[in-house]
Amino acid sequence: MPHKMLKLSTLAILVAGASQASAAVYDIQQVNENSTLVNQPYPVQSDRALTYVSTGIESSGSDASCFTTDCTNNTYKVTGQALRGSQGKPLEETVAYNANEQHVNDESSLWSYCSYNLGYESCEDWAKREFFGVGYTKNDEFNAPGLGGLQKKSAAWVKGYSSNSQGLVDGTPVTTFASNPDKYQGTQKDNLGSFNGSAEESIDSSVNGVIGDFVYGITSSALFKNSHGNPRAFDKRGFVNVGGNDVSLAPVAKDASPLVSNMGQTQANAGILFNDQLLVVGSSSYSPSFYGKDGNGNLRQDEDKLPNVEDILNTGTPTLDFNRFKTCATDSSTNLYANWECQFSTFANEAAFWLVDENGDIKSGSISAGSGDQRDGLAVIDRDNEDLSFQASAKSVALVDGLPLAAGYSTSNVRDDFYAMQAAYFKADNADLTSWTRTFVPGLSIKPGDDRDFTYTIANAVNNQSMIVGDAKGNGEKPLRAYVYKIGDSSAQFLDNLVPSLFFKDSNSHASAVNNHDQVVGWVDTTNGTKVERKHRAFTYTAGAAQGEALASKNAWLLDDLVNDGKQDSNANKYRIINATGINDAGVISATALYCEKGYDNTSQNSYCNGGEASAEKYVSVKLTPINGAKASDIIKRAEQEDEPVKRSGGSLGILALTALGFIGFRRRK
């Protein structure tokens, strides 16, 4: 039966584009690509280009809006990350895929996550790609793995490790404390040994923000070598660089065990200036989650948090033993860096802050209330589910009435039935930051039962107008839905209800950031379909007043349309913007885009690059600057041409596939 929908031909699109006047609302600029990962040795040979992604944009302070001022030569810095291959467990997430079971440690668990939460037919391939790396050889994965992958990181104790990611500011690499052996300060630092080769060649990192002279983000430990193996001091830690001082953000718990104080993770997610210091918020480990006490005071253990050695090395030696694993948590005399098992430690995490001054001196504390094994009135481990633990994190912070307001998530004991991660905000009660008040975002409650609406909810960003944006992941295969919430309102509002013309029914969407003018950015699905990975594009939504004469209040647009000037041979037609990660008050946006060096075949939304040639596209980091004086009439919506019925290999784009519904990321184009 002939298709009843009219499909634009390439010729029709070219004619339509030629008839448009040259115009646009945003100018697009590609960020420099100076990562040194390409110069480092790596065990897998490949000519695949590095993946460059953005993580945020520098604050514009009191600068005027670029909609009304010429910002052509602005110098706002874009933070980001270069990636060699897949990560398996993303560095930027407190718990991988926002699944507080913390069971993601092998190929099977990756497949289980994908199958239950996304239901894609491609879950088998995705799980292998995340575990063995991009470009793995099917049926010979251990002998011919790809780029990146969780298997390499898990096997580092035995086989060593080569860096897979690198944090960047304006495309230039950032070196952290992790490259300096003197900056490792745990009580068991003498047990680590010495660096196993070049520290920079074994570290993974990401930069999350830059404020004046302060740069902050997340880094792994370098790999060490001792007589027992190749340990890391910890899996990941927040860092701050300022004035030549590179400092580590240690766990904030005052009564932490040796395991937590030495190997506990921290994350530096967001920051603002507060009393002439950098206030960084994030998460901090306070107790092991693989072995600990539940709400009844009983000791519980979860053996699934330790992988099987065969799944990592394809052999039975050396062994991994759960009884040895327990001693990492229970025996204070244990040499944490003599047992491979300790490298797999999982933790309960609390929301936390660090105040860092210009000399690198630090004052830190908890945002989550409580001490010992209790946080926000809950024990470390759910008394009915030994695989669920308390998790909280502050993902964003703003100043409201002179005091910090953070947003992120905490743990709710859903009707005394199970622990769940739920969107929350945290108000500082005083300028000393000695206590904070937590409030769950209304309208996002998680209900018990298999038919509950959400698996988890998260607040991703907050501004100084008390506007919060975030996501709610539907239970099972239900979609991820972006929302906005103004503190004081009765309930969060979902963008698929506010702007159904763009956020269609059952579409996935993610709200990344919001500026102080209530302009929101993120991504949304642009194709429909079940059991498949959908394409998506970056969007902006004006939750508040109109921005300039171009962006009306309470409306949403794809950024692809706002940069489109209607010309096939223009710079704008070299990009398709797939995720917006930050926006400052001047309206400048950081984003990640697909890049076609010779320009896309036409100006349509889904145009091919070089006729669909494999590896013709790559991921790049970009900055979008509003064009002074742009009007609504300058917006040129791209035609929604369907892809031609030719299978796209996607060989160069699989690194970020499928990583959106569990944690912030991108999906492969089909």
List the helices and strands and how they pair.
Layout: H1 10-18, E1 26-30, E2 51-57, E3 78-83, H2 107-117, H3 123-132, H4 150-154, H5 156-159, E4 165-169, E5 172-173, E6 194-195, E7 205-211, E8 214-219, E9 224-225, E10 237-242, E11 245-249, H6 258-263, E12 266-274, E13 277-288, E14 291-293, E15 299-301, H7 309-313, H8 322-330, E16 347-356, E17 362-366, E18 381-382, E19 385-389, E20 393-400, E21 403-414, E22 418-428, E23 436-440, E24 454-462, E25 467-474, E26 480-486, E27 493-494, H9 495-498, E28 509-514, E29 519-525, E30 536-542, E31 556-558, H10 559-563, E32 575-583, E33 589-596, E34 617-626
Antiparallel strand pairs: 1-34, 2-3, 3-4, 4-5, 6-9, 7-8, 8-10, 10-11, 12-13, 13-16, 14-15, 16-17, 18-19, 20-21, 21-22, 22-23, 24-25, 25-26, 26-27, 28-29, 29-30, 30-31, 32-33, 33-34
Could you name the key traits of this structure?
34 strands; 4-stranded antiparallel sheet; mainly beta; 670 residues; 10 helices; 32% strand; disordered N terminus; disordered C terminus
